[in-house]
């Protein structure tokens, strides 16, 4: 009896229709006037890529200035701001292609071994390392709010 109930619940979940992109993503079109995405609820959104800085190499004054700038952004637009980090696989295909070309041109056996070792190292690096990018998503309920947020950032 218990098995029949489990089978029925599995069939019910399988029969749900798949959602299309318009149901999943709220983006409807790109508004060229504001250079932003127009969402289904009428609000606006834009995405900025953050270029990370080496904080270890900064002196204390520079680091303090960066912290103050970030605090200023949080205080002015905090409810309409979202930080997102995305991991991407690292691609070493270009480097490997050039090394393959050098390997074909090489006549010395030692040089071919050395180039082959470099190719293997690049393959290992590609499998084990992810590239992390950071983005800011910022929003505005209407045109005025969006422009205000954009200018504050």
Tell me about this structure.
The structure is a single chain. The chain has 153 residues and is an alpha+beta fold. It contains six helices and five strands; from the N terminus they run H-H-E-E-E-H-E-H-H-E-H. It is flat.
What is the topology?
Blueprint: H1 2-14, H2 21-24, E1 27-31, E2 36-39, E3 44-50, H3 60-77, E4 81-89, H4 93-105, H5 109-128, E5 130-140, H6 143-152
Antiparallel strand pairs: 1-2, 2-3, 3-5, 4-5
Which residues form runs of ≥5 with pLDDT under 50? Answer: none
Distance between the termini: 61 Å
Helix tally equals 6
What's the main sheet like? 5 strands, antiparallel
Strands side by side in the biggest sheet: 1-2-3-5-4
Radius of gyration: 25 Å
Shape by Cα distribution:
flat
Q: What's the average pLDDT?
A: 82
* Helix percentage: 40-55%
Q: Could you tell me the strand content as a percent range?
A: 15-25%
Number of DSSP E strands: 5
């Amino acid at each position: 009896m218990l098995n029949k109930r489990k089978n029925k619940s599995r069939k019910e979940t399988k029969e749900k229709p798949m959602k299309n992109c318009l149901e999943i993503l709220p983006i409807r079109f790109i508004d060229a006037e504001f250079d932003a995405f127009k969402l289904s609820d009428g609000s606006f959104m834009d995405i900025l890529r953050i270029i990370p800085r080496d904080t270890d190499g900064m002196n204390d004054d520079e680091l303090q200035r960066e912290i103050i700038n970030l605090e200023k952004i949080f205080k002015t637009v905090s409810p309409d701001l979202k930080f997102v980090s995305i991991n991407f696989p690292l691609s070493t295909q270009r480097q490997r292609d050039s090394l393959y070309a050098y390997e074909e041109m090489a006549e010395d056996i030692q040089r071919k071994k050395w180039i082959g070792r470099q190719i293997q190292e690049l393959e290992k690096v590609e499998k084990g390392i992810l590239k992390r990018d950071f983005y800011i998503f910022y929003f505005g309920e209407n045109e005025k709010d969006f422009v205000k947020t954009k200018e504050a950032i």
